[in-house]
DNA sequence: TTGATTTCTTAACATACATCAATGCAGACG
DNA sequence: CGTCTGCATTGATGTATGTTAAGAAATCAA
């Protein structure tokens, strides 16, 4: 229980041993089954999920019922709907589990308290925000500047594990194209090998 | 000199009077002419720009020489290339002035020092990061889920002043379409009035 | 003012991607 | 074991957007 989070805090966030137990006491563990919903549109998101095992996704559903995947979160990733979490607005997005998953769950207040306890935690939290911005900006860059094929090549380069773990139509959804188009892109790439 | 930044810190960031002077001493003012470059690709971005007057843009140039605008920054906005500023990587992007502008300039170290002086400043800085994430995420959402027309309608709704101040081809570049397509979109919209 | 440059629009045509429909395949499950 | 369901692929066709080229309008510079 919480081993994954413990190791993460110790080895990546560099939280000092003296603070680890205190911080760990403040979070809880949640096990979810595949397809279980963790956030629905219209609700206010209160949680951040740390994925110890499994795979989550954050996505929107448009007027015509189509899903648009904003983000995947495999092991050792944090996932939340920050616009709702931080600003307290009802979420426009959904979160669910793509695999049976084991999560560590905490809220915004935890982040503030842990930041007061551990300066390393505070710094890492800022690192996460900055890193998130960097990724979103790069993604915008390829959405406005690159075609479907190069976006797909970039995706498999960046997230090879995820390609193996989710159906292709979800990758297509993340890339902003249809499953049929992605299938054709993949055929084109295969031809050149 | 620095009046705009002073009022912003006092009225929006809520920095206490006791801290204002000390913080203001640490920043400098820069006046730039239209078209002046503030960041080039390949350089490490050291600055954040606060726009007191004028208009900046952050953009990329692709292999074929086309510009892709990532962000505009009119009065009272902060602009920087955070991926480069925070992580110290060479920037993939450019920043220049679209109008004669008056800027307040500071660096990452300033942010840390001002955060130590004023907790209000620290909180506002986090607010800016969270807000930035929210905007980028919404933009990704419309890039993968909406067509050119609705992206344009959203843009003029969100940034009506900017539409008045930049050439339309730059709006097109921001939206990820060609100027010709934007022209057609605008004609379609006009027909329905 | 005048000429030069940039911007916007329009049209004809090209292309990337979407849509619709059918098929095949594989894992889930009775 | 067979049936069902979800997923991937393919082809035919439609549509949104890109490309190229030209001219009109606006802006800028001298």
What is this structure's SSE topology?
The structure is a homodimer of 193-residue chains.
Chain A (H helix, E strand, L loop, with lengths): L2 H9 L5 H9 L2 E5 L4 E3 L8 E6 L2 E6 L5 E7 L4 E2 L2 H6 L6 E4 L3 E6 L1 H10 L1 H27 L2 H11 L1 H6 L2 H8 L3 H13 L2
Chain A binds a DNA duplex (30 and 30 nucleotides) through helix 9.
Q: How would you sum up this structure in a few lines?
A:
The structure is a homodimer of 193-residue chains. Chain A is built from nine helices and eight strands.
Q: Keywords, please?
A:
193 residues, 9 helices, 51% helix, DNA-binding, four-stranded antiparallel β-sheet, homodimer, Jelly Rolls, alpha+beta
Q: Can you tell me about this structure?
A:
- Two copies of one chain form a homodimer.
- The model of chain A has no long low-confidence stretch (mean pLDDT 95).
- The first copy, chain A, has a four-stranded antiparallel β-sheet. In chain A, strands 2-7-4-5 form a four-stranded antiparallel β-sheet.
- In chain A, a hairpin with a 5-residue loop joins strand 4 (56-61) and strand 5 (67-73).
- Chain A contains nine helices and eight strands.
- Chain A has a domain at 3-118: Sandwich (Jelly Rolls), CATH 2.60.120.10.
- In chain A, 51% of the residues lie in helices and 20% in strands.
- Chain A is α+β, with helices and mostly antiparallel strands and 193 residues long.
- In chain A, helix 4 packs across helix 5 and helix 8 (168-175) packs across helix 9 (179-191).
- The radius of gyration of chain A is 18 Å and the shape is globular.
- The first copy, chain A, has helices at 3-11, 17-25, 82-87, 108-117, 119-145, 148-158, 160-165, 168-175, 179-191, and strands at 28-32, 37-39, 48-53, 56-61, 67-73, 78-79, 94-97, 101-106.
- Chain A binds chain B through residues 60, 62, 66, 68, 70, 82-83, 86-87, 92, 126, 129-130, 132-134, 136-141, 143-146, 173-176, and chain B through 60, 62, 66, 68, 70, 82-83, 86-87, 92, 126, 129-130, 132-134, 136-141, 143-146, 173-176.
- The first copy, chain A, binds a DNA duplex (30 and 30 nucleotides) through helix 9.
């Amino acid at each position: 229980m919480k081993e994954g989070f413990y190791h993460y805090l110790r080895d990546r966030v560099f939280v000092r041993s003296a603070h680890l137990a205190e911080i760990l006491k403040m979070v809880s563990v949640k096990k979810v089954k595949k397809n279980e919903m963790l956030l629905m549109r219209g609700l206010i998101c209160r949680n951040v999920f740390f994925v110890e095992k499994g795979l989550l996704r954050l996505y929107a559903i448009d007027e015509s019922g189509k899903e648009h995947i904003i983000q995947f979160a495999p092991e050792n990733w944090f996932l939340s709907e920050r616009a709702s979490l931080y600003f307290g607005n009802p979420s426009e997005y959904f979160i669910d589990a793509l695999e049976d998953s084991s999560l560590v769950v905490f809220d915004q207040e935890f982040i503030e308290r842990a930041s007061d306890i551990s300066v390393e935690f505070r710094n890492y939290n800022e690192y996460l925000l900055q890193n998130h911005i960097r990724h979103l900006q790069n993604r915008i860059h390829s959405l406005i500047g690159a075609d479907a094929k190069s976006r797909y090549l970039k995706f498999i380069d960046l997230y090879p594990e995820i390609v193996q773990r989710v159906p292709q139509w979800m990758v297509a959804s993340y890339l902003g194209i249809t499953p049929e188009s992605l299938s054709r892109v993949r055929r084109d790439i295969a031809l050149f090998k």
